[in-house]
Amino acid sequence: MGVGETLSVSINSSKTSREPEDPDISGPIVPPATARPARWRRVVLDVEPLRHGPYRRLWLGQGVSFVGFQVTSVAVPVQVYDLTHSSFWVGTLGLVNLLPLIVFGLWGGAVADHMDRRLLLLIASCVTWLATLLLLLQALMGLNDLWLIMGIVAVQATGFAISSPTRGAIIPRLLEKDLVPPANTLNFTVAQVGTLIGPLLAGLILARWSFAVAYGLDAILFSVGLYASIRLPSIPPLGDQRAGAPGLRSVLEGLRYLWTQPVLLMSFVVDIIAMGVAMPRALFPELSVTRFGGQGAVGWLFASMGIGAVAGGLLSGWIGRVHKQGVALVLSIVVWGLAVAAAGLAHALWLAVALLAVGGAADLVSAVFRQSMLQTYAPDEMRGRLQGVFVVVVAGGPRLGDLRAGGTAAVAGATASWVAGGLACAVLVVLVSLLVPALLRYDTRTPRTE
User: Fold this and answer.
1) Distance between the two ends of the chain, CA-based, in angstroms?
2) Dihedral sign from CA coordinates of 47, 51, 52, 54
3) 443 HSE (CA, 13 A, CB side)
4) In whole angstroms, what is the distance from residue 30 CA to residue 14 CA?
5) In which element (H, E) is residue 81 found?
6) Distance CA 161, CA 331 (A)
7) How far is 70 from 248, CA to CA, in rounded Å?
8) Are the beta carbons of 67 and 299 closer than 8 angstroms?
9) Where does 175-278 have alpha helices with state H?
10) Nearest alpha carbon to residue 402 among 102, 72, 71, 77
11) Are 258 and 106 in contact, with CB atoms under 8 Å apart?
């Protein structure tokens, strides 16, 4: 599919009386503020951002396509475990994902600061879709080649690494600052719905059908997200952002800026600790067989964190009223680590799922605070690059966690790897936040200083 000027689509046909008339976005566009919400709306999920058409389509497309993405995220490690019977090789998938995420996440964020973000999102989405089709093709042909699967996963990670920071940098251009936290809550909640539904679908598909069916479903659902990207208005760079080239120098400028902002820097550090040290999912295929009774359990294990995150998102109306976001971020990560450690000791599937669900709810809270801090703290000319760093951390951290969990399990066993990771996460986050207290002092009511 070609992407360029021919894909410029008018959004007039889907406008409501609350939407702007100019599709070429030069600043935040959002419907007028509504009256103060009723008391119950302060508790449940805030859906005000969905009144804005372009954001609504982007949100819906992301939600539908992420279900398919999660089906593939379960099918690939299960296929690798079937081929190798080793959690080490399942963990190695984390490294295969991580390298493209680091390189293209940083570069993609820099590009997003210098070109039309809608066009870049379309290009990256097409790369991801191609990788999904290749996974489908290898499954249909029955190739069962470990290195081929690894290579396709690397291509898929490349598209994801470019599209994710671009999508994150688009949101503050669609909405006013006050709607960014609820928009991020909506994004993370719908993503966690995918994290819930996708693995359950994957477990059903893999138990009854085949890997090809799983990859085929992903390819179909991804087309909805691609359509949503096509329907976005043009989002060109602002002012002098048009000048300059999105090369290594631009990436380094973003990293230097981040180094001077301890609040943002520490928000990344604590997330690396949370995911890189505590994430246990590389152990799910092995423990579903050895502890929880077979492959039917693997879908529940992968879906468990999504269950908690969806519940947390539906009761997230309070998040927008939290001003001490740094303290809230640290506390949520401590809860995540302790819940993961407790789940590693559970021998009943329902208890492990319940404890991981608590961790998933805490992880959603931490993710919303981290993303909101980044999008409202950083200037627009740096958002793409910092979103690139955000994607490297958010998507790369769990891959590091996969590598750590698989490698530790190979030496010390799956249970030791799982429990020790959760406990170490809780302790390290507290220590780091005390040693560098800028994050704990962060308050949205305090004027920002450079």
Assistant:
1) 44
2) positive
3) 4
4) 15
5) helix 53-84
6) 28
7) 32
8) no
9) 180-208, 211-230, 248-259, 262-278
10) 77
11) no
How far is residue 163 from each of residues 155, 187, 333, 345, measured CA to CA in Å? 13, 15, 26, 37
Residue whose structure tokens are 């998938």: 93
Tokens of 437: 């207290």
- Report the C-alpha gap between 418 and 408 in whole angstroms: 9
By CB neighbour count within 10 A (0-12 exposed, 13-18 middle, 19+ buried), where does 176 fall? middle
| Cα 391 to Cα 404: distance, rounded to the nearest angstrom | 19
- What distance in Å separates the CA atoms of residue 343 and residue 230, rounded to the nearest whole number? 42
User: What pTM does this model have?
Assistant: 0.65
Q: Which residues contact 188 (CB under 8 A, 6 or more apart)?
A: 309, 313, 364, 367, 368, 371
Name the one residue in this structure whose structure tokens are 């503050």: 172
Give the gyration radius of the chain's Cα atoms.
Answer: 21
Q: How far apart are CA 56 and CA 29, in angstroms?
A: 13
* pLDDT, tens only, 202-245: 988 988 899 999 999 999 999 888 888 888 888 887 765 554 55
Give the largest Cα separation in the chain, rounded. Answer: 62
Q: What is d(CA 329, CA 307) in angstroms, rounded to the nearest whole number? A: 20
Give alpha helix (H) positions in 231-379.
248-259, 262-278, 284-290, 296-314, 325-345, 349-377
**194 φ, ψ (degrees, to nearest 5):** -65, -40
Looking up tokens 């999102």 gives 121
The Cα 354–Cα 350 span in angstroms is: 6
Lowest mean pLDDT among 166-175, 215-224, 359-368, 420-429: 166-175
Cβ atoms of 365 and 58 within 8 Å: the answer is no
Contact status, residue 94 vs residue 279, Cβ threshold 8 Å = no
Q: What is the pLDDT of residues 301-340, one digit of tens each?
A: 888 888 888 888 777 666 667 778 888 899 999 999 999 9
Closest Cα to residue 167, out of 58, 17, 16?
Answer: 58
Structure tokens at 373: 């801090």
Is there a contact between 115 and 390 (Cβ–Cβ < 8 Å)?
no
Using alpha carbons, select from 215, 106, 216 the residue that is nearest to residue 153. 215
